[in-house]
Amino acid sequence: MVLIIHGIRAGIEWKNLICFPDDYEAAFDLLSNFVAYGLTLLEASVSDGGPLSKLPVDGFDGQLISPHLQNLQKAWEMVLADRPPFPKKPATTPLQEWDQRLILYYEKQIERVCRNLVCNRKAQKKALKGKYSSAGLNHYEHMQEKYLQLLTGFEASHQKAVSHLAAC
């Protein structure tokens, strides 16, 4: 790792001061120590084998960063230690999940068609009481047949999905 520092201390400009810290924590503490001893940071860059990354020099106020990073590390280690272990086998396979979604879809469609059947039946009864042409009444009968066909198809598909899920 390479740390390049540019700053001013006691009227002397430090330009391209190069340090080789072991890790980011050490690099940040090094910068903090320089600031604590009076260096005004103008620019700081770090590289861990890739391109140089500029660091926000205002973030270094002379206080060590390592204690905060260590506390953060302890906190996330506790979070990771407290989580339940991963299940050995997923509760459902993707195919079972698909079947469950299909079942819900068909159940919603069956409910929708049943509502349409009820509404159509009510409209048909209302039309029978009024003075409507036979063409209007035929429309309601035709729609009733269509809804019954849809209902039969959705119920059959629903049953297939339930059977397939049970077989898995």
Reported for the largest beta sheet, the result is: 4 strands, antiparallel
Q: Calculate Rg over CA atoms.
A: 36 Å
Low-confidence stretches: none
User: Structural class per helix/strand content?
Assistant: alpha+beta
Order of helices and strands: EEHEEHHH
**What's the total number of strands?**
4
Distance between the termini: 54 Å
Provide a descriptive summary of the structure in words:
By secondary structure, the chain is of the alpha+beta class. It has 2 domains: 2-69, no CATH class; 94-167. It is 60% helix and 15% strand. It has 4 helices and 4 strands. It is elongated, with a radius of gyration of 36 Å.
Annotation keywords:
single chain; 168 residues; 2 domains; 4-stranded antiparallel sheet; 4 strands; elongated; alpha+beta
Short description:
Helix content is 60%, strand content 15%.
Topology:
Elements: E1 2-9, E2 12-19, H1 24-36, E3 40-47, E4 53-54, H2 66-82, H3 94-129, H4 134-167
